[in-house]
Design goal:
The structure holds two protein chains of two kinds. By secondary structure, chain A is an alpha+beta fold. Chain A contains six helices and 13 strands. Classes of the chains: A alpha+beta, B alpha+beta.
């Protein structure tokens, strides 16, 4: 079995296909007596997504299945997945979440264009892990980052979260508390097990009490990065 | 009146969210959040040891309103709990 250290958690699994093996490589660690949890990959897993979706290859199914097992396991370690593109800038992490196709990745690529690729680093382009370290939320790269393998094995302190929607002009404002909860829950996995569920809500409570949440209408102009940064870094919004 | 055992209130930031912690109860779609008054009443209905009359008295005392107002508010809230399936 291979051992990986993802989001500072020692996870054991044995990839059968190159896709998962290659993308997990950066996280490989030597043998350790400490295994936090194991993910078993079954040949004939009846729950594999491929059964319902003939468009996916076995390798993609394995990648997705191990990813969702990881994110479910993460909850026990005071962590949560947020479906988002995460960018690190000045040693702080900025998360942009939205439903598929809204332009999360496009927005963080605008940050790279605006602030420079060497300064604005994508931590994970689609599924960053948020984990509480001594009660403080950090954002981690993982091997699971959506269609393109854009992720770094780094952890950066979370600065703020913004939920995006498309708009002709760039507007940003603080998001109301209950709307933030609802938006976050819509972009994460919700376990059905009672203990995990309570744990997930506790982690969410800490995250939302630690960092500000915004909602932003954004276009694809470079100005979008500046508008988002001003609000998330300095609290200056252009809308109430 | 008693809240079903499978439901619990969970504090997230400034909201109290009703969550299903028991697989025996239906996991409802969407999110139910309570304000502080709702939370106050919920906590009394959770144990199921108080009569309606006692709950109404407690509301009247806590919020400094007359019994009729407290009673109307209580039954309105109870109706929405019943509708959502949170009551035994």
């Amino acid at each position: 079995m291979a051992l990986y250290r993802i989001a500072d958690i020692n996870v054991e699994y044995e990839p059968r296909f190159d896709m998962l093996r290659e993308r997990s490589k950066k996280y490989l660690i030597g043998p350790s007596d400490k295994v936090n949890f194991k993910i078993s990959i079954k040949n004939d897993d009846p729950s594999k997504p491929g059964d319902n979706n003939s468009g996916l290859s076995d390798a993609e199914c394995e990648y997705i299945a191990v990813g969702s097992s990881f994110y479910k396991g993460l909850i026990s370690f005071n962590g949560l997945l947020l479906h988002a593109s995460a960018v690190a800038y000045e040693n702080e992490a900025y998360l942009f979440s939205a439903p598929c196709g809204t332009g999360k990745s496009t927005h963080t690529s605008i940050w790279q264009k605006h602030f420079g690729k060497d300064k604005a680093v994508i931590i994970n382009d689609d599924k960053p892990a948020i984990r509480l370290v001594n009660g403080i939320p950090y954002v981690y790269g993982t091997p699971f980052s959506g269609q393109f393998d854009i992720s770094e094995n780094i952890s950066v302190k979370l600065k703020a979260i913004t939920f995006l929607h498309r708009s002709d002009i760039n507007t940003i404002k603080p998001m109301d508390g209950s709307k933030a909860i609802y938006s976050f829950l819509n972009q994460t996995i919700k376990p059905s097990e009672p203990e995990l569920k309570l744990k997930a809500y506790k982690t969410l409570d800490t995250i939302l009490n630690s960092v500000p949440v915004f909602e932003m209408g954004c276009n694809m102009d470079e100005e979008a990065a500046e508008v988002a940064y001003k609000a998330m870094k300095e609290g200056i919004c252009n809308e109430d | 009146m008693k809240i079903k055992d499978g439901y619990k209130l969970c504090k997230v930031k400034d909201s109290s969210i009703v969550i299903a912690v028991d697989n025996a109860v239906m996991d409802f779609n969407g999110l139910v959040t309570l304000n502080s008054t709702g939370e106050f009443i919920w906590s009394m209905l959770e144990k199921g040891e108080m009569t309606d009359e006692q709950v109404i008295e407690a509301i009247a005392k806590e919020y400094n309103v007359d019994k009729n107002t407290a009673s109307a508010d209580f039954y309105e809230f109870a109706d929405s709990l019943k509708e959502a399936g949170f009551l035994e």
